[in-house]
Amino acid sequence: MKKSETKALNIVEQYGQASLSPGQKIFNALLKKIETERQLLAAWQEMIAQHHQLYVSQYQPLMHSYHRLVAQLVRLLDSAWSAKGLSRHDQEKISHIICSVSAAIIGDSDAEDLKRIYRMHGGGDFDTEAEQQDAGAATQQADAACNPQDAGGGERAGKRKKSAKAAAKEARQQEESHNASQSVREVYRKLASALHPDREQDPLERARKTVLMQRVNIAYDKQDLLGLLELQLEIEQIDQSRINSLSEQRLKHYSKVLTEQSAELRDEIAGLEADFRRRFQFGPQQAMSPALAMRHLKSGIKGMQQNINGLKNELLAFEDVKNIKAWLKSYHI
Question: Which domain does 34 fall in, by range?
């Protein structure tokens, strides 16, 4: 959506008018809020598509290359473990390194010898450990999903009799929701009446109205009041004077729908962000935005390439056991 369309929908203070009414100010604030949330949602959706493309095309191949090099290091250290000149403490360090790095790469490798090396150096059976971890995670998820205390509390709350005040409040809320829904339906009907393609004889105009009517139906299915109002403005079914003259009652109904629309946008944004954090293991307290997410990935690609270059140099140096022994001096378990 273009910013100019949102500005055109704003209620503009008229000449001789002291100031906008509270209802008009709320309406304008909601329009601005929804536009900001729309832009943020679009930014997340665009970033996720770009992130996926870059992750698959660049980061994953580098990660696989790095894991293959780490597998070579594990095999090299395993061969060096029994070499002359290494102390018992050196061997313990090598075993510790092998077990530490093997666990991270075995899942990315089909080589059974890595699992054998892992077991030989005290790592246990990798497949059994993996199954136990999966079983533990499944148990935690089941416990979180089925909490008897929560279920009991919900049942008791359902049986609790509503007070007269609570019942009256619920009735008012239902009436407000009905009126708000009717307001959206009225806008939809006006658009449908003007744009229904079956009533158009000219083929080009019928095609134009078909596209517009599809947009109307999509917006109505989503209860996207702002989208419907923008379409009214686009086809010149309403103008600035009509927007400025909206009654307080109409503004109240519109604002209720826009408030719900804003909440749905926030939920959608939060869902995208939570799923992204889970997939790429970002903590809940870690700052995150579409721009930061791409920055993290590009930094990760650069860091992975540096790790690959460094590991290649180490593999060349470790062909000499003396270099392994010298390197182990600075390694602490």
Answer: 1-9+22-142+259-333
